[in-house]
Design brief:
Layout (H helix, E strand, L loop, with lengths): L2 H36 L2 H19 L6 H11 L19 H17 L9 H21 L3 H7 L10 E3 L12 E9 L8 E4 L4 E4 L3 E8 L4 E7 L2 E4 L1 E2 L4 E6 L4 E8 L5 E4 L2 E6 L5 E5 L4 E4 L6 E25 L6 E7 L9 E11 L10 E10 L7 E3 L3 E5 L24 H15 L5 H26 L19 H14 L50 H22 L3 H21 L43 H15 L6 H17 L4 H15 L6 H14 L16 H12 L2
Length: about 750
Amino acid sequence: MEQGKLHLMKFQKRWQLLSYAEVFLYALGIAVLCYFITETVWFGLVTFIMSVLLFVFRKKPWKHNLNATSSYIDAHVSEASFSTGLLLQPEDSLSNLARLQRYKVSEELTKRLGDISPPNALKQAFLVMLGCILLGFVLHKLAIFRGVVDELNNPKNTEQIQFVGTDSVQAKSSIPAIEKQEIRVIYPSYTRLGSKITADPNIKAVTGAKIHWKLQFDAAVVAPVLDVMGELKPMQKSETGYQVQLPLTASGFYSFKFQNEEGTEFTSDLFSLEAVADNPPEIEILGLEQYTYFDFSDKKLVELQSTITDDFGIDESYIIATVSKGTGESVKFREEKLNFKEAISKGTKSIRATKTLDLNALKMEVGDELYFYIEAFDEKQPKRNVARSETYFAVIKDTVGEQFGVEGTLGVDQMPDYFRSQRQLIIDTEKLIKDKPSISIQEFKSRSNELGFDQKALRLKYGQFMGDESEMEEAPAVIESHEEGEDHDHAEDQENILKEFMHDHDGDNEHNLVEQDEHENEDTSEEPEDPLHDYLHNHDDPEESTLFEESLKTKLRKALSIMWDAELYLRLYEPEKSLPFQYEALKYIQEIKNSARIYVHRIGFDPPPIKEESRLTGKIKDIKNYIKNETTSADLPFEAIENAVSRLEQLVQGEQEFKEDDTILFTAAGNELAQLAIDNPGKYLQVLQGLKSIENNTGRTLENYQFVQKGLLLALPSTPQVPGSEKVYTDEINSLFLKQLKVYD
């Protein structure tokens, strides 16, 4: 390689190294400055790495390649005659004149490049680094950023438990610190999680776990205790320090307290205890309808597939199947416990369980029903969690119809089969009236006639329920026949024709089988009245053979009479006139149904009796107004929090000084807030710590007052709005403005 090109490459590398040196000096100065401000090595190291990356991308040393170097030399070295680029080209591709010029440039650069320095700002970078170091040293000595250091080293942001004195006067004495802390979480054996050691005092574990604290102090302490939401547990002294163990049964908060040898009491911040519940198993049945029906000739098999999962492990699971035989009072149940096809090993977190239920193997017959569900248990101790699936049904249909008959003293079903069909008739009639313009006359008359037949069937059904045994019951006198002439004559002729073939047992002394008594011609009204008539239930009389009392029987008879009118207008193809009668019949039916219900007598005001001699006299001498005085107190579940918010407002405004009674108030507010925070300890942890610092006289500052006040206001549940309580009109613009203020609050 020619000497000229070799010196050119050395110049390029020197240029890149100087650029990287500038980046290093800038980054080092900024990192040292951040270290003096934060007094944290890790923060300074992170700042150095980020600064290096920033300045590298800004300076871009990799852009100083041979082409850039050649251009720089052509611009700053006159002896190069703008021919440095010839050194970068292959010699074979150059002409004789170009080769001569290339040789000349190579000789000149060999002499001059050693004396030329690449462009750089190394001195400037060095001065910036020195300036940053001096500035950081001055700031560190003046402790201007002491608040930043305290915030970064705040116990809230570290896992080390810190203590503060509860008395601001005596707290100037030395505070014993923890040299070593160890928190061991021992999980229940069934979880198979063993135990773990953590330094984080905010603990989250499964309910039933045991928490074991070990604290080692750098000075002597007196009576250290574990304060769990007001319950004090003394710590036991060990060879290296103090220890205490607590079973985790519910979520809450805890802190440590102790005294030094001088009698000053110290306390730590609040830390959260979050108990995670062991959930019961989850059961899912796959691809099975809740109701399955089989005919007698079907293959009566139910393929049951399910998945069972649990967070720590399944103990056992099985199928509870119940076979129902018979109906009514003779129904019988047989319950069986069925195991799955797969064997369930204890501790399995997820299994797929299947079972083929053979109804014949369960000795089910026609009309029998099978109810089955899955029950699963986990391994929680001392009491297992249990879960069960929905109930599924399998029925073998009974296709044999049975007629119900009343015989002897058997019970009677008092509810008719078509008790609600009058409402369906009304719906169909209204639909017919609506469809009348869009259907033909023939279809309209056919549908109206069919509705009339349905109305007749309903009337006859209620008539049988009333005790009527004949379908040919005489219509009420209100309804007159609209058919005359041939039909009547034909009916009479038919009657005469049948008379010759009938055996008339109702005739007047037919065949003279019985001697006629002269008293038989007398009026029947003169016969003596049966004294037991009022007390007998005469089943021969349709009007008396009823299961209802007299008032219900009268209403039902009215409903039957109205059904006649409804049927008449349907037969006459006038459904508009039939509809009012149908509604009236429905009203009577509803009254009959409601009258069978049992009502509890309403308890009301029973006024005292009025003396008859005092009525209408106008004298009010002995009459006194009734006055009742009653004092009721409303329950205020968060009274202490509300009072604390009000008291904090006074402290924020500087109206009053902190009093001894305020400690009791803030303690009560902390207890109420702790009850709210049991379900979500992390949400209210900082607010509780702020309250505790106010009680301990370590956080009685304006900023802490405002922070705690805002946290207590957010913790209060929202109260329902009372209509008319807001007197100030708020338009949409003001609402948006207030909403925006809350965002930046």
